Structures are given as structure tokens and as C-alpha cells.
Amino acid sequence: MEFRYKKIVFLTGAGISAESGVRTFRDTDGLWENHRVEDVASPQGFKRNPALVWKFYSLRRLQASEVQPNKAHVALADALHSLEQASVRALLITQNVDTLHERAFGALPNKNFIDIHGTLSRSRCTKCNKIFSDRWAYFNEEQQPAERHADHLWSNPSLTNLLSMPRRNPQGIPLSPCCSDLLRPDIVWFGERPHGVENAIEQLTSCDLFVSIGTSGNVYPAAGFAAVARKAGAHTVSINLEPTENSAAFHEHLHGLATEKVPDFLKKI
Ligand SMILES: [Zn+2]
What are 163-218's pLDDT values in tens digits? Predict the structure, then answer.
């Protein structure tokens, strides 16, 4: 298979997962059970009430395990496989934490994938920052301590540090096996620095095609990636249901459903 490009960077956002039924806070006015998102998705919120935060993320893990990758995730995973076989360098950067890319891909090679906002399928020791693959929902829908697998969060056989049900404190909050200190979701919260931004920028400045899929163009740093790639000489394409806020950074705009536009577009590269 021949490709027109030598190095491609893909960026995905909530729009690629919407048709899988993944809901975002924008659907709920930024509230969860009358708590502000900042109370369940910030370091301050975790310090104040770690049980509330784990109730929220346990529920998100259960919800994520009930949805499936859609045609857009699958087409992208297939494209990454084909590109790799043709020795075209490709990087997938996602803003999503829903694990659907990993699940569409099977074993997603780490070097080709950056989840800049973290993922629901990992936890981290608050003391030493050790990362664990974590499929547990520590609280159930009734917000009671529970021990449930959010099983479909992955099908990735290459996972390391898979966590057996850890010890928990009297409030039901999981404790890390390494330090017996609190575990937290490996999610980038409000006020925290996204993962892998330096690496992303480096790749963006040397790519010849940049494709943004399902991003609204108003969450930084990702909203600035198209401009970086374009300045470096890449062709830039946006695939989204509606015009994006950073639309001036794109040469090409494809408006429509991700499950239709993404497979169509990938056939042409
Ligand atoms: Zn530790």
C-alpha cells in the first residue's frame, strides 16, 4: 500500500466517541449529581473529598465499560496498523479518557499513542506516582463501596501492573500496593499539566499531515496543535460535526458524523 504522506498526526476529541454513547459534561451543564465538575476533577477536590471523587470515577469506569468502539475508532486503528506496515510514521493523540481507542486497537503501541488527558483504565499512587492498570469500580451506582470489574475497559494483553483488588481505607478508597497511600485516577484534572505535550509538539512540527477528529477546538493545549502543524508546513484537516472554534488553522473541513467521515477520509490518504 502506498501513502501520500510520510508522517501523520491524528488528534481526537469527544466527537469521535459521541456515537458510541459516551456522554460528556457538556451534556449535563458541567454538573454531576449537583456537584460541580471542579469538585470531582481537581487535585483540590480530591484532597477535600477523595471518596466523592472515586464514586464519580467508579461510575465513569462502569459507564465506559458498557460502550463499544464505533466505526471511526476501528477505521483509525486499522489505518494506524496499515501505516505502520508501510513505514509511515503515525501518532495518535487523544483528549478522550474513555479507553475506546485502546480497545479498538487491541494492543496500542505506546510510542504511537498519547492520551494527553489520561485514561479511565489507569490509577496512580499519590505518593510515588507509580502507574497501575486498574479496572476496578470501587463504588457502585448507589455510591456504596463495591468490588466490581469494569471489565470491558480494555482488551489489551500487553498491560503492565494490572492491579488486583487493592487494600482500601475505611472510607473504601483504594490504597496503593507500593506505598499504602491513596490511589487516584490517572486522569489529568483541572489545573494539571496534560501528558506528553513536549513530545506532541515535536511530532507536530515534523508531520506533513495533521488530522483533527471530533474536537471542538476550544480546549488547550490541543486546540493549538493544528496551528503548530500548519506553521510547520503540514496539510491540516478537521473532521467534525460542526465548524470548530479554531477553524482558521485548517486547510480542509469535513462536516458530518465521525462514523461516516472518518472511514471515508482514511481511505483517501
Ligand atoms: Zn507508591
Answer: 999 999 999 999 999 999 999 999 999 999 999 999 999 999 999 999 999 998 88
Domain boundary (161, 187, 213) is at 187
pTM of the model: 0.94
Q: Which three cell numbers stand for residue 75?
A: 477505521
* 3 Cα to the center of ligand 1, angstroms: 45
CB atoms within 10 A of CB 249: 21
Nearest to 14 by CA among 227, 257, 215: 215
- CATH classification at residue 236: 3.40.50.1220
Q: 116 CA distance to ligand 1 centroid (A)?
A: 22
| Chain-centre distance for alpha carbon 163 | 20
CATH code of the domain in which 172 resides:
3.30.1600.10
Domain membership of residue 84 as a residue range: 1-22+69-117+194-269
Active site residue 117: yes
Q: From the candidates 81, 117, 149, 235, give the one annotated as an active-site residue.
A: 117
Same domain, 82 and 99: yes
pLDDT tens string 109-121: 556 899 999 999 9
Residues in Cβ contact with 56 at an 8 Å cutoff, skipping those fewer than 6 apart:
32, 35, 40, 41
